[in-house]
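TA notes, week 10

Several of you asked for a full example with nothing omitted. So below is the full record: structure tokens for the whole chain, then the designed sequence directly under it. When grading your own attempts, check the secondary structure regions first.
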């Protein structure tokens, strides 16, 4: 690995493997700020913004400059800036603010990348995020350019509320945001290292699992940043610090926020109340579960992280590795949580779509094999039917507000299967809606042991499966 493709903590030994010890100089967009940052021995990384001169005006020129909107001019071009930085040992983060800036700057950067023996981060907001506007950098163009510099580290983010605007406390990154990013990255088949710039004030407890999954799937890291006006609560920084390995998160924060954060870095739980930590997500053990797509020509896909499985399409299967066998008088219990997330390709979903969980089934023909299918619908439907038989499906439907998040529990005895689902999302009721259904079903004599198989029955919906547990008594 060349030094320009090393992680920040690998390159900067003085950080001692701790991403929070990486130091930054922000908005290094003028000759004066560059000179100050280069002469500051405490600074490890230089962050700077790129536009083309006269961006969006009649005087626009195809010359990349160091400037942040609304500025459209600068006393230093990117070519001049790079020539001075090359002589230092400081890493660089280039934040591209327009497609034109990326196209012209890459022409300058590409032939010189081999002379840069420092980390080079190529940053752009390529997707819309919470309260974000349409990206000013074309996603396809930027990612295509990034593929031409494999020595770089990609820093790919989401647009958010404009700096200076008060951020609503309800706003947070969502599973949709994170899954969309994963889909884009997988489509381009990047070989570079990844880091995801995330705005601290949008990193709530509910966002930790999605970003843990994204970093698992792409071997990525996080770069947590904050605007001066955000007033980010210390709790949110400590939650991130506590959730991820210290080498996997960088903190690019204003000095006032950094001062409050620093005393808790070594022991973030000391700054958190017990109920703030919440319950720990169960680990999705590789020894217990495997995921695969049984038809390469289908649009199905499955992504397994250390805590979460995300799957879509009829041919993406999540299966227990070890066959389960019920002894006389015993039972199998399967529990977990599923969250349904819309694919960007679809807005309206039919109510018969959701998660299927098969018992006693064979992969070759799930619908017609002798076994049991449990179904959790996007509309709250819970059903059980005997696969491959003419028996009528037993079905009940929840009432009240729809939910996209359901906890489920399946109990399978020698002759009965029961399914209970509980909606997890509604905030306007003290007691969540809980429905259950039971089916009398003798275990097929030909099947003594079986695997549990899960799949989504549509490619227009993602199933996010967490807290999965399987116990045999």
């Amino acid at each position: 690995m060349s030094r320009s493709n090393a992680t920040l903590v690998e390159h900067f030994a003085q950080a001692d493997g701790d991403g929070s010890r990486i130091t930054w100089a922000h908005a290094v967009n003028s000759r004066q700020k560059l000179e100050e940052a280069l002469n500051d021995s405490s600074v490890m990384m230089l962050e700077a913004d790129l536009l083309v001169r006269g961006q969006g005006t009649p005087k626009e020129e195809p010359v990349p400059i160091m400037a942040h909107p609304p500025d459209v001019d600068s006393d230093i071009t990117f070519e001049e800036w790079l020539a001075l930085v090359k002589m230092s040992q400081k890493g660089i983060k280039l934040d591209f603010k327009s497609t034109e800036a990326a196209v012209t700057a890459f022409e300058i950067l590409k032939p010189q990348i081999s002379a840069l023996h420092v980390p080079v981060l190529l940053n752009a907001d390529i997707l819309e995020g919470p309260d974000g506007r349409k990206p000013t950098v074309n996603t396809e163009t930027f990612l295509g350019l990034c593929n031409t510099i494999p020595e770089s580290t990609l820093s790919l983010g989401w647009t958010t509320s404009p700096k200076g605007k008060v951020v609503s406390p309800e706003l947070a990154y969502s599973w949709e945001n994170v899954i969309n990013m994963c889909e884009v990255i997988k489509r381009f088949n990047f070989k570079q290292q990844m880091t995801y710039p995330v705005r601290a004030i949008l990193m709530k407890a509910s966002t930790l699992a999605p970003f843990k999954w994204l970093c698992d799937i792409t071997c990525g890291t996080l770069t947590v940043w904050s605007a001066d006006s955000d007033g980010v609560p210390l709790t949110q920084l400590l939650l991130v610090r506590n959730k991820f390995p210290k080498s996997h998160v960088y903190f690019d924060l204003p000095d006032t926020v950094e001062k409050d954060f620093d005393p808790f870095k070594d022991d973030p739980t000391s700054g958190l109340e017990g109920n703030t930590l919440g319950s720990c997500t169960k680990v999705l053990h590789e020894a217990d579960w495997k995921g695969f797509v049984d038809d390469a020509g289908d649009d199905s896909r499955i992504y397994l992280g250390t805590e979460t499985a995300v799957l879509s399409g009829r041919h993406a299967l999540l299966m227990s590795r070890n066959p389960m066998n019920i002894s006389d008088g015993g039972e199998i219990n399967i529990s977990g949580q599923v969250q349904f997330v819309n694919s960007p390709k679809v807005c309206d979903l039919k109510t018969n779509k959701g998660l299927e969980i098969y018992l006693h089934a064979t992969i070759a023909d799930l619908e017609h094999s002798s076994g049991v299918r449990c179904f959790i619908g996007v509309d709250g439907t819970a059903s059980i039917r005997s696969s491959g038989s003419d028996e009528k499906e037993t079905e009940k439907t929840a009432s009240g507000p729809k939910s996209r998040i359901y906890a489920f529990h399946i109990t399978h005895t020698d002759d009965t299967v029961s399914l209970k689902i509980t909606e997890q999302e509604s905030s306007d009721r003290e007691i969540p809606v809980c429905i259950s259904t039971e089916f009398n079903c003798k275990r097929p004599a030909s099947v003594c042991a079986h695997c549990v198989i899960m799949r989504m029955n549509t490619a227009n919906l993602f199933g996010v499966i967490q807290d999965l547990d399987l116990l045999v008594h």
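The CA atoms of residues 63 and 418 lie 67 Å apart. Use that as a sanity check on your answer.
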